[in-house]
């Protein structure tokens, strides 16, 4: 009597589903999810709120930049809580994105669209952040040493229509990525168990992400507002030391 052959195990492609405690990927994915909220998400909120100070004019914005760069151990904080976590979140996110496979053409469900848009907005945010850090932080006028030049430096960049369009697209993409990331974080970490809880929290995330995006776009508009056209190159120029005249005997 012939014995039926066992069915061959199908080869699965893309990112495989994970269960609690299985392999190192579970830990790294949890760390990736957490890093998107703290500290990266917290920094995003702070950065948008700080940039909103531009609506009060070049001097107010310069004072905000000066305050942030006068914090104790600011360079250590910058590397430990911004650059290193951001590099990990971005690189691991790219690895996840390229291993995954979008199936919206076969299963056009909301979850699949969310998966796809989260990957696309993440790539957009990464490309924007790289160029933004290079142009505003590591090239041209050194803003930590010359905070008074911060407003004019951003203003000159946004006067280019192409750069303005890039900034607007990046702001929308980044806020979407962050808001949907919070929703995913709550679902993955068991904070919102059940479909109803996730649906309600989805409304909260959508409202918060929209508010944050509007705040960022309004702050961005301040740099191209005709009210502040042709801002001084440095509203807080370093004063040369006073020359003391010798006393005549």
Question: If you had to describe this structure to a student in words, what would you say it looks like?
Answer:
This protein is mainly α and 249 residues long. The chain has one domain: 3 helical TM bundles of succinate and fumarate reductases (Up-down Bundle). Helix 1 packs across helix 4, helix 4 packs antiparallel against helix 5 and helix 5 packs across helix 7. The radius of gyration is 24 Å and the shape is globular. It starts with 22 loop residues before the first helix and ends in a 27-residue tail after the last helix. About 6% of the residues have low confidence.
- Approximate shape: globular
Structural class: mainly alpha
Task: Give the percentage of residues in beta strands.
Answer: under 5%
Quick one: how many beta strands? 0
CATH superfamily: Fumarate reductase/succinate dehydrogenase, transmembrane subunit
The CATH architecture term is Up-down Bundle
């Amino acid at each position: 009597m012939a014995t039926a052959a066992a069915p061959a195990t199908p080869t699965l492609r893309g990112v495989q589903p994970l269960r609690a405690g299985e392999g190192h990927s579970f830990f790294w994915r949890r760390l990736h999810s957490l890093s998107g909220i703290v500290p990266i998400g917290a920094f995003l909120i702070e950065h948008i709120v700080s940039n909103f100070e531009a609506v009060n004019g070049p001097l107010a914005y310069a004072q905000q930049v000066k305050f942030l760069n006068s914090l104790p151990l600011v360079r250590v904080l910058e590397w430990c809580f911004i650059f290193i976590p951001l590099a990990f979140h971005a690189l691991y996110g790219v690895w996840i994105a390229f291993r995954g496979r979008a199936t919206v053409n076969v299963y056009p469900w909301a979850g699949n669209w969310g998966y796809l848009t989260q990957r696309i907005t993440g790539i957009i945010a990464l490309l924007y952040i790289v160029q933004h850090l290079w142009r505003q932080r590591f090239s041209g006028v050194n803003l930590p040493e010359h905070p008074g030049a911060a407003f004019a430096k951003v203003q000159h960049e946004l006067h280019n229509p192409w750069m303005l369009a890039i900034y607007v697209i990046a702001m929308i993409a980044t806020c979407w990525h962050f808001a949907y990331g919070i929703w995913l974080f709550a679902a993955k970490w068991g904070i919102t168990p059940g479909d109803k809880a996730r649906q309600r929290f989805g409304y909260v995330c959508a409202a918060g992400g929209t508010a944050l995006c509007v705040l960022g776009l309004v702050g961005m508009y301040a740099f191209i507002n005709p009210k502040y056209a042709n801002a001084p190159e440095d509203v807080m120029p370093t004063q040369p030391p006073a020359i003391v005249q010798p006393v005549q005997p």
